[in-house]
């Protein structure tokens, strides 16, 4: 059985768009996917302030999801969903890509410094690929929303299905907010860098 982060990664690698997701956006979405799976396993719950309260410690066979469960803050004050996304999401896309490679699945991504590339992922006849593809083509609400947040173009027609689980919807909203924040930081840095370049060129002249 695959996990939601694995399914999301496979969908990202299968993306035919000329603009595959950036690692930053994908990492945030993967962190959200992990949290949604932990919610589904009743390993965590969200309190009224959207903080992550650990529950019982389930047996998790997936190494990275088990690592996520092990990294939960287990004493008050608990982490907010937003704090989890930024902490857990750091370099998470590269970690999942490395795990995919370690399992012998082909991927163009082999090094953290390389840009994320789509189009060559898990073989189509592999069980993991079939599971992700089935979930994707059936328009699973959570997977569809995570892919959209990560910037994976969905060329299918029709409205995205609604996520009816309140906790999962809260996580997805936080992922979208974090992605927007990341984009704003990038834009601000680009403007600052451009301004510095202009000053530098003017001084040299």
Description:
- It is built from 8 helices and 2 strands, in the order ααββαααααα.
- The protein has 205 residues and is mainly alpha-helical.
- Helix 1 (4-14) runs antiparallel to helix 2.
- It is globular, with a radius of gyration of 18 Å.
- Residues 107-115 have low confidence and may be disordered.
Main sheet attributes: strand count, strand direction, barrel closure: 2 strands, antiparallel
Contiguous uncertain segments of 5+ residues: 107-115
Cα separation of the termini: 62 Å
Query: What's the average pLDDT?
Result: 84
Please report the number of helical segments.
8
Q: Which secondary-structure class do the elements indicate?
A: mainly alpha
Outline of the structure:
Helices cover 57% and strands 3% of the residues.
How would you describe this structure in keywords?
205 residues, mainly alpha, two-stranded antiparallel ribbon, 57% helix
Itemize the secondary structure elements and their pairings:
Elements: H1 4-14, H2 23-40, E1 44-46, E2 52-54, H3 63-70, H4 81-88, H5 92-102, H6 127-137, H7 141-150, H8 166-204
Antiparallel strand pairs: 1-2
Helix pairs in contact: 1-2, 1-6, 2-4, 2-7, 2-8, 4-8, 7-8
